[in-house]
Automatic annotation (TrEMBL):
Residue span, 4Fe-4S domain: 1-59
Matching NCBIfam families: PRK04165.1
Name the record gives this protein: Acetyl-CoA decarbonylase/synthase complex subunit gamma
Binding-site positions, 5-methoxybenzimidazolylcob(I)amide: T342, T348, G372, L373, S374, V375, A436
PANTHER family hit by this protein: ACETYL-COA DECARBONYLASE_SYNTHASE COMPLEX SUBUNIT GAMMA (PTHR36214:SF3), PTHR36214
Length: 451
């Protein structure tokens, strides 16, 4: 039975040091009991207490990892129903479905699209995560050959899909070291797949035709010592899958019901034959609350919006989205091109860089770390001032790229121009437009003035 906040508090050091991020040990204990904090946040708790509170401090939805290395996917670990309460933690994986009954050329094309469809945004690489290989041929060797082909051509995680333990075993012989997800244990094959997952130390998906059946299966698997489970409620309509996802999430988070405290998998690819309708279903499941979403194919026009939705939902709402600090080249700048500086608030970066690009004037854009704040907010918080901009300009390497010493600052930061000239000896500080929309005309005018 889960411990209450008071019971947890009695076992804490009661130093009220604040190192955990909240001012008192009591507040930390309450957060721990509610699943809104992790015991590791307290640096002073003893090993004995850690063991005693292991269950109370465990995330209500167990985290697990599919695959190995940089391309591995971590799912689960969520602690809230709604992202504004804290934040969602591990974004759902988007998986491409490949069937072993497909022709070799079709399989090659799908893997190629999977590898090529990736997008850079806000310093992050957005791309799909998993390849699900479904057995339809009933031939272990053919299934293993497709698994081998996928493994050779992609470094991402793999889902092995079959109800036949012998066929899954053939696939595991090829990729067991890559820790694939085995799909799916049901009431007919439970013991065989449980042994297979145990022997190969791989996560196991569980499919029930109802949530009640799912609870029965996960309880049996937990008793066998299997903890890394992924849940499939069997729903194959949007209404039912959304209802099931919500029930599972609420049971795990609000009721602390361990039998459903695992990430989920859903199959828009089995809910419709219309590809765009499939993408629409996937968009719903990104928000509520799938851990893995399996798609029949990947197309740029549908994948990019899904990746962007996932990025937005799984960005901490209490922290601004920030761009990586550094030098950004726009329109192939040279040594005579103008140099502009702004903050690393991602919206500011995209607007400013977009306006520079539309001007067609080659330019260097310096993006300074300002904790993700906009120009005005960062200036007011002393995060975008002469004392922070000058050291950044000196160390970023821009002086190796241009032969002039002219820096254009945002018009909203005009107050710092004098101080910045003192900090950057020999540099001319030019006050740019207050509004980003005026940047193209400003740059073109300066370019014309040089002619």
């Amino acid at each position: 039975m889960a411990l209450t906040g008071i019971e947890i508090y009695k076992k804490l050091p009661k130093t009220n040091c604040g190192k955990c991020g909240v001012p008192t040990c009591l507040a930390f204990a309450m957060n721990l009991a509610a699943g809104k904090a992790e015991l590791s946040s307290c640096p002073d708790v003893s090993e004995e207490v850690k063991r005693e509170l292991a269950e109370a401090s465990a995330p209500p939805i167990r985290p697990l990892t599919i695959g190995t290395g940089e391309q591995s996917l971590k799912i689960g670990g969520e602690t809230v129903m709604f992202r504004h309460e804290k934040t969602f933690v591990n974004p759902p994986g988007l998986a491409l479905l490949i069937k072993d009954s497909m022709g070799e050329e079709e399989i090659e094309e799908k893997i190629s699209r999977f590898n090529q469809l990736q997008y850079e945004r806000v310093g992050l690489l957005l791309r799909p995560d998993l390849i699900a290989i479904k057995e339809e041929s009933k031939e272990p060797q053919k299934f293993a050959e497709v698994v081998k082909k996928v493994k050779e051509k992609s470094k991402n995680g793999i889902i092995l899909m079959s109800n036949n333990s012998d066929i899954l075993a053939a696939g595991l012989q090829v990729c067991k070291d890559d820790k694939p997800l085995i799909y799916a244990a049901n009431k007919e094959n439970l013991d065989n797949l449980a042994n297979l997952a145990k022997e190969n130390s791989c996560p196991l998906a569980v499919r029930g035709e109802t949530i009640e059946e799912l609870v029965e299966l996960t309880t049996k698997l937990s008793e066998k010592g299997l903890k890394d489970l992924v849940l499939d409620s069997g729903a194959r309509t949007l209404r039912q899958v959304l209802e099931d996802q919500t029930i599972i999430r609420r049971a795990a988070l609000l009721k602390k019901f361990r039998a459903l405290g695992f990430p989920t998998i859903a199959f828009p690819c089995e809910m419709t034959n219309n590809f765009m309708e499939e993408a629409t279903v996937a968009s719903v499941l990104i928000a509520k609350y799938a851990g893995i979403i399996v798609l029949s194919d990947l197309m740029g026009e549908s994948l990019f919006p899904l990746l962007l939705e996932r990025l937005n939902i799984y960005t901490d709402p209490q922290r601004p989205m920030a761009t990586k600090e550094g030098i950004y080249e726009i329109n192939n700048p040279g040594e005579d091109s103008p140099v502009l500086v702004t903050t690393n608030f991602s919206l500011t970066y995209f607007i400013v860089s977009g306006e520079i690009e539309s001007s067609r004037v080659p330019a260097w854009l310096l993006v300074q770390e300002a904790e993700g704040l906009s120009v005005m907010t960062a200036w007011a918080a002393d995060k975008f001032v002469a004392e922070t901009i000058a050291p950044f300009v000196k160390k970023c390497g821009i002086m190796d790229k241009v032969k002039h010493k002219k820096l254009i600052i945002p018009g909203y930061a005009a107050q710092i121009s004098g101080e910045l000239e003192e900090e950057l000896s020999g540099w001319e500080i030019i006050i740019g437009p207050r509004e980003a929309s005026h940047i193209p005309a400003f740059l073109k005018a300066r370019q014309e003035g040089k002619k």
